[in-house]
Here is the input.
Amino acid sequence: MDRSGGRRLPGNRIVRRRVDATQVLTIPEPRRRAEAPNASQHAKRFALAFTVLVLLGSTLLALPWTTESGHATPPIDAFFTAVSASAVTGLIVVDTQDHWNFFGELVILILIQAGGLGFMVGASLVLASLRRGGSLRDSLLLQDGAPTLSLSEATTLSKRILRFIVVTESVGALVLTLRFWQDKPFHEALWHGTFTSIAAFCNAGFDLEGNFISLAGYAESSWISGTVILLIQAGALSYIVLGEVWTKRRWTRLSLDVRLVLTVNAVLLAGGALIFMALEWTASMAVIDPWARPLTALFQSTTTRTAGFASVAMGNVQPATLFLMIGLMLIGGAAGSTAGGIKLATIGILGLAVVSTIRGQPDSQAFGRRVSTQLVFRALAVTTLFLFAHFILTLALAISEDVVARKEFGFLPMMFETMSAMATVGLSTGITPEVSTAGKIILCIAMYIGRLGPLTAVYALQQRQQQARYRYPEGSVRIG
Here is the structure.
């Protein structure tokens, strides 16, 4: 029996230990778990990684053993090429095939792959985090900078995107190599096929055909044109869209976002091809056989919004066509893809808002779903900021080239070149190699803004979103 009167059970023992007053008991710290990613961290890390990639690439390309001639490339040209490759744009100041040797081309290809892979993975994680902000808990976590995606979810998504990229580029490289093998030795065909496949999927308009002709030499090859179109679309629609299509496989089961992206993409592809064919049938496409001109128009409609490859001489394209192409470049591809621009869903939301306003509907509607007013405001803000940046950069390029350098390129080509840089497309009317050093710097700024700007703007607008605690009295404003 113990002192309290209770019965002492077998195995029960009273242990008394005297603790010294000066003795310090150390409690071990809990093991740190791997920190789950959040949108803010991904945005900052991606911007830093992009900057480091550009600086490293420009340093390598400035070395003399990356060129065919063995002479060092001017730093501004090396920097411009590194920015264009890392931003998966395709604007060039020196021809890729003629100026760089195999090592230089390999550096460019690595920059393209790193830029395309990094942006598709990074942007997809940021957008997935933002999309998870639908519930009250996720919204509070997002505003506090806390992760809305678990580490396991982020890792799984990254692995799936990486697998999608590797498989798609490998199949494209095999198909293109078999076609290039008909014209080149096998080792050259393999290198050209691999380079073109990666550049096409990453929506970077770099090529190895030489003499600044892009893929104009294969305008009548349905093999090359068809494969490149599919690769460009795979990269421009993103894993997020194509993955949902593959998983659900029925139009009615797809989300509003995916249905809107696919619809706008189809309309722009068909509409751009028809208008390009009508305007250029007897102009830039006059040297192409009539049977191949519809495919050429479709190829150019596809590449104008995203990739930057050319199957016609852009210097021979009519002004009306160039103006149309500026609008297509502005839109770009899907969010979370390798494409640039303001994105397909953004222009789709603005279109829905216009149609709903004309019909007198209080909300934007599509496919039996309502689009929130806040989302319309965000789309409007992104588009306005993009157009404002394009206006400022075009004005700066016009001043540096026409006023200061006396180049007299003409305003439309400079407007086209600036939009091509901002939308990370890579099409050129031929003036990029001739612009001054100041003009090259302006185009580099345009590519940097175009690569990081839309995603950063979407994140910032989402994070700053607040619930209204009160509303001001409505006022009347005259418009129209």
Q: What stands out?
A: DSSP finds 15 helices and two strands in the chain. Strands lie at 364-366, 369-371.
